[in-house]
Amino acid sequence: MPKITVAELIAALGGDLLGAPDPVIERIGPLDGADATTIAFLANPRYQQQLAGSAAGCVILAPALRELAEARGGSYILTPDPYLYFARLTQWWAAQVRPLGAPRVHPSAVIDPTAELGLDVDVGPQAVIEAGARIGAGARIGAHCVIGERAVVGEGSRLAPRVTLGFDCRIGARCLLHSGVVIGADGFGFAPTAGRWEKIEQLGAVRIGDDVEIGANSCIDRGALDDTVLEDGVKLDNLVQIGHNVKVGAHTAMAGCAGVAGSAVIGRGCTIGGGAIVLGHLSLADGVHVSAATVVTRSIAKPGQYSGVFPFDENASWEKNAATLRQLHALRERLRALEKKA
Amino acid sequence: MPKITVAELIAALGGDLLGAPDPVIERIGPLDGADATTIAFLANPRYQQQLAGSAAGCVILAPALRELAEARGGSYILTPDPYLYFARLTQWWAAQVRPLGAPRVHPSAVIDPTAELGLDVDVGPQAVIEAGARIGAGARIGAHCVIGERAVVGEGSRLAPRVTLGFDCRIGARCLLHSGVVIGADGFGFAPTAGRWEKIEQLGAVRIGDDVEIGANSCIDRGALDDTVLEDGVKLDNLVQIGHNVKVGAHTAMAGCAGVAGSAVIGRGCTIGGGAIVLGHLSLADGVHVSAATVVTRSIAKPGQYSGVFPFDENASWEKNAATLRQLHALRERLRALEKKA
Amino acid sequence: MPKITVAELIAALGGDLLGAPDPVIERIGPLDGADATTIAFLANPRYQQQLAGSAAGCVILAPALRELAEARGGSYILTPDPYLYFARLTQWWAAQVRPLGAPRVHPSAVIDPTAELGLDVDVGPQAVIEAGARIGAGARIGAHCVIGERAVVGEGSRLAPRVTLGFDCRIGARCLLHSGVVIGADGFGFAPTAGRWEKIEQLGAVRIGDDVEIGANSCIDRGALDDTVLEDGVKLDNLVQIGHNVKVGAHTAMAGCAGVAGSAVIGRGCTIGGGAIVLGHLSLADGVHVSAATVVTRSIAKPGQYSGVFPFDENASWEKNAATLRQLHALRERLRALEKKA
């Protein structure tokens, strides 16, 4: 674990010192449960009463709360966006406690002689890199990854162990793909014929921009004719499904178990909640926010928050309400009849 | 990319020529955005106005639209089912642009001496094939696949990299399994006892028919006593979960993130939408179609389309309606009381 | 297949003999469809009429049904909890038909010299065990597993092929992890800034207790600052997502495709149905049972069964009811107005 003074942290990460420069910080933690060696942050003024009671050795704080801090005493880093500062602090911390090893190509990796590896590429044990693939400088390919023919990995991208990047698929720079990710499996396309399904070969690929992160066991299918596209800065959580020919706009984020069906177009800066489903061929405008477990069944042209979840309840209450729901349209008709009478 | 005349395509794939035989085709694409080197198709007469405006060099068309075509001019392939023709065209195209390499057994693969490999089997780097497994002629086992003891892969089946086929499990001929698929993990079976769970060992296996396709990271559990079964021609998308002892009838298709709980029996020719869930021990008749995200809580004896999704809305509207829904049964009682009075 | 007399089974597994000791048992199966070589069980007295018609050679039965058994004749094992006895019988059976091979470290495995392997550890082909990892006595690491730096596997735990156990993550004794499981991918944490996302490095790990089973392709993310925790005896089915800093209480079970968002705290002895979603930062008391596909949007302090699923219906009926649902709040107002008039 690092040991660092507040003054040294500020030298590394910026921010303005308020109070003592010399507390020694050994961990990052929440205000609640902090001790004198903990650095915490307060991003939401609603939680400001937690500050007074916290034993944290240093608190990252917005300048607007300076008076509160001065009343409490101790050591602070003032910065306009404490949560962003915290994020950068975690990055600095990770670099201290988990420094990346020097890049090496493990001798058990199977690399086609026509694959091109940039400078300082790291290839883990038993990774497979096929013909014509190109791996950008500083990229790290984890153990047991399979990089298909002619696939491209941008500079500085990291693939955790056990990622499949299919042939002809491309990911940009500084991406992070977690274990079990599958990029470029076939989209789900079949023509029905005489009671069975005739396969539509998926002739497109997947194109992924820079700074994209994809969670464990998520799947991005290749396009049928054109490519499936994730733009720069997209963040996907675990077990997310992206169908063929989907376009996901820049800096859109999707939580775990979300699914987007084929040819849907999701705008920029959207958020899709966990377990939500977007049906195929729909368009979502920029800035659309879909609540967890909501099923989007038509296009959304206006930014905003959209929801559609059955409210859960004790089972007996749910049963009664759900049963009545199956007669809801009839109830409306009965209400209408009464209104006419009245 | 292939360059081929319309006449040559017809020689390879059939269909009747209407108009010019000599346009050179270099890509397959939609009517919209096509150019003179594009072959497109029109399957749904509803979209026939797209035809007039399209610059496609050749269009696959049903004979019923011949007059429309003659009015527009250009080159056509007439065929009773344009979408099916398109599917076969993609297959022909894929064979041109991605010919399968000559089969080889990669020296890094670990193959038990008691495993039997048929003629022309391809085994990718670092695949593992365990004792007593049998791989049919022409099958292709991708890099990092694990074929368990006594497992059977039928002739001409293809396993993408990183597929697990568990011991004693069998897949038929011409199947396609995508990366991350797990066939034959234990079904989820436990006996509750004194506040904890006692494992029920899963003594069955998985039997999969011919021409089955299974999407990336999907899971088919082994049965508890008997086998879990997917019949011929079943198509599963990505991240689909099939519980132990489920039976899926021939030519049934399930979209991404669908889940079928243990011992459910799904008929032939069904479709299960993305994210839909079928509870355990239910029976669905042949020809049942379940909409996306629908939860099937009782057996369905009659073919047809079934749905059950909360309609999404702007968050504020949803909140009001959802809150009221929790009193729906009481509202019905109030309505009834009013009706009695009236 | 084993061949064993009822008397020998009782010698191995306990229980009281009723009737003949000498039927030879060759398979375990349901009452329905059993033959003279089948051992079956009857756990639920509701199904007792199946007993009379069954040809099973031996039936595991509660003593309360002794009279029924005596009337039918044949051979029985009497035991207070037939389902538990059945579970133990499957375990005994599996040990006969699938004995574990002698432990060996496959020569193709890549094991860092600083990793510590206990006595009788089995390591499959091409597994990777990184620096400082510790594998307890009798543990079995499947083919293609990746055990990260400093990760710990408890005694007697089994990892099926293709499991990722991330650096610093720990699993207890006698755990069973199925293929494709990913333990210790990054939790989904980002600070929004100027229209993009700044990564919050996930500095915690994952701690898993004893006797935990995790289904195929399930994901347990590492914590942001502290650890994600699964207590002893937790059972997770396939394709389950556990977000960062979640705590799952001992002996809680979750069915396939369930998802738990970050920092949720689930009590002991809970059950979470298939496809259910628990939102982040919620608390569920001990003994809470969530029905399949239910979305838990607020904390639950009281044990019991909770549900929230839109009842499915024929599509046309659903459409009418769903459309009306979007006006439900307005309907309530109309009802209220009528009530005032009346």
Describe this entry's structure for a reader.
The first copy, chain A, has 342 residues and is α/β, with parallel strands linked by helices. The first copy, chain A, folds into three domains: 4-97, 3-Layer(aba) Sandwich (Udp-n-acetylmuramoylalanyl-d-glutamate--2,6- Diaminopimelate Ligase, Chain: A, domain 1), CATH 3.40.1390.10; 110-306, UDP N-Acetylglucosamine Acyltransferase, domain 1, CATH 2.160.10; 315-342. Helices cover 18% and strands 28% of the residues of chain A. Chain A is built from six helices and 39 strands. In chain A, β6 (58-61), α3 (66-72) and β7 form a beta-alpha-beta unit. The longest helix of chain A has 16 residues, at 82-97. Chain A is flat and about 75 Å long. The N and C termini of chain A lie far apart (76 Å). Chains in contact: A-B, A-C, B-C. Chains A and B meet through β21, β22, β37, β38 and α5 of A and β4, α4, β39, α5 and α6 of B. Chains A, B, C: GO terms for molecular function: N-acyltransferase activity; UDP-3-O-[(3R)-3-hydroxyacyl]-glucosamine N-acyltransferase activity.
